[in-house]
Structure formats: C-alpha cells, structure tokens
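One thing: mind reviewing this one?
=====
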Amino acid sequence: MSGLAIACPGQGAQHTKMFDLALQSEAARDWLKVYSATTGVDVVALAASGENLFSNRNAQLLICGAEIATWTALQERLPQPEVFIGYSVGELAAYGCAGAWNVKELGLLVPQRALLMDQVAPAHAGMLAVKGLAATALDDICKCYNLELAIINADDHFVLGGVRDDIESAAAEITAAGHWCKALDVAIPSHTSVMRAAVPPFRHLLTTVPARTLTAPVLAGINGLAGAEATIANTLSAQIAEPVRWQDCMETTLERGVTVVLELGPGRALSRMFDELGATVEARSAEDFRTLDGIVKWVETRLA
C-alpha cells in the first residue's frame, strides 16, 4: 500500500497556465499532441488564449487533457497510487489516469460526453455551491426554486443544479439568511435528472470502447465505491444525471489507508475539502508547485 491518492477535479478553475506543469515533460507533450489531434482542438493553445474556457465542451476537453497529461508527466516518478478519485468530469479523467483508455480513445470519449450533455441541457443553466444549510432547509430551497441536488461535498456543503434565473433567486434568499453560496463557472446542470437523456447514449459509447485493466481502483462518484472494469460503463454514465457523492468518495479514500492526496489541478478545491475533513491526511494541488520535481519531492517526503 503506497498511501497515495490521485484526485482529479471538475470544471470551474480553468486558466491560461493550466498546462504549464505537464509541458515540462516530453511524455506529456507527446500525449497532448495526440489528444489534440484526435479531438480536433489544440487544448494547449485554447487554454493559452484565455477565451471561452468555461463552455461545457471546452471545459471538459481542457480538464481531462490537463489532468491526464499531468499524470503522464508524473506517473513514472511517483509510487503506484492506492486509488484514483475524480470529481464530476474529473472521474472520466481519473479513469484515464488509471489506464482505462489510451489517448486516442479518450480523444473520442471526452468530446462525445460533452456533446451529449450539451444536446440535452436546458438553456441558461448552471450550478450553485451552498454551505451552511441543513438538509431540510436545502430541500425547501430546491422545491421552492426548482433546483436539484447535484453534489454532496459534506454534511453542510452541497452543489445544486438548475436554470440560471432560479439559481439567482435561490442565491438571494440563501445570502439573505446569512449563508454562503456561489454560482459556479459551469454552463450546464450536471448530475441532475434533466440530464438523463444523455445517459443511455454515453453508456452505449462506453460499451463500444471497453476499459482496460486499471492500474489502481477508481471510485465511482455515485456511490464512493471501487468497481470492476465491467461496471464502468454503468457508473460513469449514470453520474451524468445522478448526484455525485464526493463526501463518500473522500471517506472511502481514507478508509483505504491513504495519507497523501495529490490533486492534479487546475485549482485547489479538492485539496481544501480534504483539509476540511480534519483527518490525518495531507492534501495539496499540483498547482502549489512550480515544477514536477517539487511535486515528486513533496510526495516522497510525505510518504517516507
């Protein structure tokens, strides 16, 4: 048991320098060239442009590309992880890091997931992060403003999905009541029932691109459990329209003996949530470091 977990975040923190760490590695640069050629989008150039980074399609291409490329740069230099975990679209990236599909297969799966979701998502939709509300109060907010629970991060930390006008109205009430909330830079209400029409076609696509044997388990976002390769098509497609139980994923990670969590970035959201658990685990984002060498040194020191 290595004690290391690799965490792949979801949308919302894309930025112009999100590929800088990966580009320090020749292996990662080669991976990105094939990924970009397969998807038809030069993801490095897209990120550097700073334009339209938060549309659903671009976001998914960028997130998966950056995370898997960063892991490609690091995987030969770090111990074998105990587990991979992924938040929202980061779950697809986590399977990519674990070796489920090669770069050309990922270059097919990632844009198709985004396309299928865009085709069924309502116009002018998004997501709202909320902290401090009890479950009953949250349920009342959802019923009043036609929102749905999308992600469970903690007992009092949730993400809701719905139409932007309803999100704004709900946010005004939540803020007036003295609670924290924030509209996320996400263009669709992922993990809610309005996305269910995208589930069957994505499940079918996954069955046509069978997953290879994983190098380490990947936790399913819908239940926090490690599944077999044969279950990936079901669980990974289901999370498009079912709540992500991130709290369960974090708890399972700790139960597996993990003491160090490396978040591949972009952003530091997952590291912060592990910190908030108050458990004996050290979590940092790759973006806390200027070089790949710095990441490797930190992981090795903490696992020693």
